[in-house]
């Protein structure tokens, strides 16, 4: 019999709250990262229904959980149960990372950092650029505030429900002097280029569809991030690349927001080499699993 010694009384506990959460890739990411760092730590998924969220936050703190990720549907609902919140996360109105402090959990938003990394890894910047954001949901909030934080020249928010685009536009304007224009999806082809595009809707995940109805639009776009990574290449990316745009899927954002969470929990910073090696290994693992 092999004696299990990897999990013991000194093991640090991390996890993720979501509902559902069994599909999350974060346990693979974070446990791989802990092994890379040589840590005695484990990261587990916690299925938390909405009605149990407050009790889960209190219970996790009482049990000594060192850090948590927060995913759908809790990124906004969890705010009243936190001891504090990072200023940028407060402006965004959503958190995806909780860090343990003496008086409770503090909330942060590393989706912003993960998305920012998608641009910097490809030598792109949002500063001074015209930006089109497709979608107005949770991920779009982080993208909109990233564009504002980075000094974009103007932002268009296109959404199937115009009222949601208007609401997100108004939230950004409350904090930044950025020109923000809510539009419908049908208005996208009429925009003037060049535009950097961030696609945050689920369109293309289950069916081979794109929220951009006219593929020739992509001639106006030098760079696009589609936060979907299943399938690895969506119709949006396929059509954009066919028109000469550079495009990346959301796996980079997923991995680098997770790295940012881990760095906050531990007060460390991975080297670029360590982060890239982790991304390469996980991307290979994920793509082989999807084949």
Judged by helices, strands and strand pairing, the structural class is alpha/beta
Amount of helix:
25-40%
Number of separate helices: 9
* Estimated share of beta-strand residues: 15-25%
What is the arithmetic mean of pLDDT?
96
In the sheet with the most strands, the strands line up as 2-1-3-5-6-4
Regions with pLDDT < 50 over 5+ consecutive residues? none
Order of helices and strands: EHEHEEHEEHEHEHEEEHEHH
Give the CA-CA distance, first to last residue: 35 Å
Secondary-structure map with pairings?
Layout: E1 12-18, H1 26-37, E2 41-47, H2 53-62, E3 67-70, E4 84-85, H3 87-92, E5 97-101, E6 104-108, H4 111-121, E7 130-134, H5 138-149, E8 154-159, H6 162-175, E9 180-184, E10 196-199, E11 223-226, H7 235-242, E12 246-248, H8 251-266, H9 272-290
In short:
By secondary structure, this protein is an alpha/beta fold. Helix content is 37%, strand content 20%.
Kindly describe this structure.
Helix 4 packs across helix 5 (138-149). This protein is 37% helix and 20% strand. The chain has a 6-stranded mixed sheet with strand order 2-1-3-5-6-4, sandwiched between helices. It has a 6-stranded parallel sheet with strand order 9-8-7-10-11-12, sandwiched between helices. By secondary structure, the chain is α/β, with parallel strands linked by helices.
Q: Keyphrases for this structure?
A:
alpha/beta, 291 residues, 6-stranded mixed sheet, 12 strands, 6-stranded parallel sheet, globular
């Amino acid at each position: 019999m092999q004696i299990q010694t990897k999990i013991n009384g000194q093991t640090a506990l991390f996890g993720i709250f979501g509902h559902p959460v069994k599909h999350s890739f974060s346990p693979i990411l974070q446990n791989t990262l802990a092994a890379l760092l040589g840590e005695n730590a484990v990261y587990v998924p916690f299925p938390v229904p909405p009605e149990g969220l407050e009790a889960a936050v209190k219970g996790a703190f009482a049990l000594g959980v060192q850090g948590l990720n927060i995913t759908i549907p809790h990124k906004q609902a969890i705010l009243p149960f936190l001891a504090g919140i990072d200023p940028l996360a407060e402006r965004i109105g959503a958190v995806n990372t909780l860090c343990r402090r003496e008086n409770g959990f503090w909330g942060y938003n590393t989706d912003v950092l993960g998305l920012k990394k998608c641009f910097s890894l490809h030598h792109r910047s949002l500063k001074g650029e015209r930006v089109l954001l497709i979608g107005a949901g949770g991920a779009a909030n982080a993208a909109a505030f990233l564009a504002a934080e980075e000094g974009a020249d103007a932002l268009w928010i296109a959404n199937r429900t115009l009222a949601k685009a208007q609401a997100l536009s108004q939230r950004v304007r409350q904090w930044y002097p950025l020109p923000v224009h809510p539009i419908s999806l049908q208005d996208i082809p009429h925009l003037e280029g060049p535009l950097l595009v961030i696609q945050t809707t689920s369109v293309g995940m289950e069916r081979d569809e794109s929220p951009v109805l006219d593929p020739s639009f992509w001639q106006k776009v030098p760079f696009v991030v589609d936060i979907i990574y299943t399938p690895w290449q969506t119709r949006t990316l396929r059509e954009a690349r066919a028109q000469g745009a550079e495009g990346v899927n959301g796996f980079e954002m997923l991995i680098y927001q997770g790295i940012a969470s881990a760095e906050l929990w531990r007060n460390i910073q991975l080297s670029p080499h360590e982060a890239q090696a982790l991304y390469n290994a996980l991307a290979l693992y994920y793509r082989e699993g999807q084949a």
